[in-house]
Amino acid sequence: MNHSTEDQLIGYALQTLSEEELVKVRAHLSECPTCAERLDRVKSEMDLLGSLSVETPVVEIPLPKRSRSPFPALLRAAALLLIGYAIGYGTSFYTRSDCVNVVPFQAQVGVPSAGATFATCEPVDLNVPGNAGQPRI
Amino acid sequence: MTSDWEWVAEAARGDEVAWRRLIQQHYSRTYQVALLIAKSPQVAEDVAQESFVRVLKYAGTSNRGSLRALLSTIAARLAIRERRRESRFSDREPDEVHSPEPSALDRVLRCERDRVLVEIVGSLDDAHRQVLVLRFYGELSYEEIAENLQIPPGTVKSRIFYAVKKCREQMRDRGLIE
Fold this sequence. Notes:
The complex is a heterodimer. By secondary structure, chain A is mainly α.
């Protein structure tokens, strides 16, 4: 008669055996007092492993405070966004919206120092009709 | 009779009595799970408290399983996270058990045998220790462990088998069993 292995007995005690193996081991245990006794020992060892008891401290855990607002956080964020938009839109009626005139920049190029070879040219006045589109100098 | 989840719902609405009842009912087990993983009473206390606070977020949700299983799983996860965090900042194991001075851990253990058991369970790697502690101390079924840790039931079974086998070897080496 082949006795059950240690692994089979642990697996049996833990109920982790496959169905096929479970049937085989169960059949053997029913007719082998030696293995039945070994199984009892394995079970008592497991009981010992799970028998640890610790002094649990007495604790007072404060109940977390509930949010008083009836609105969930997402709704509150959306409401804030809407209020902000409404304020911005409302105040826009009271601000000046006149056009701003921007005077074009006019550059001056002086006389080059001695030895320079490029030619001078007249500054372009961009305010003069017809000069629009001229490159700035 | 009021169920655990009904107490949670009451506590989430601000009922102090329901809150205290939950703690009275489940604190000890949750603390023990955290202690066996974190190996530090202070960390275990913090983790157990945080687990209760977190469980309130599950009030009103469906398919939550048992509260006992959820609390143990949250505690195990938080304890592992704390343990990893501590080991990143220190070369020493939290609550080193070989110190000549009685450690904080010694103060909550009742006898030498329990101290050895903590060492043995603590010597397992995170994955195996978590499953062993949830099964033996959280009293979760294999299905509950699989569901809460989101791993296949077959993996749970193979991990628990390996963990028990390893622990038995060490229990024999340390003279706890013949």
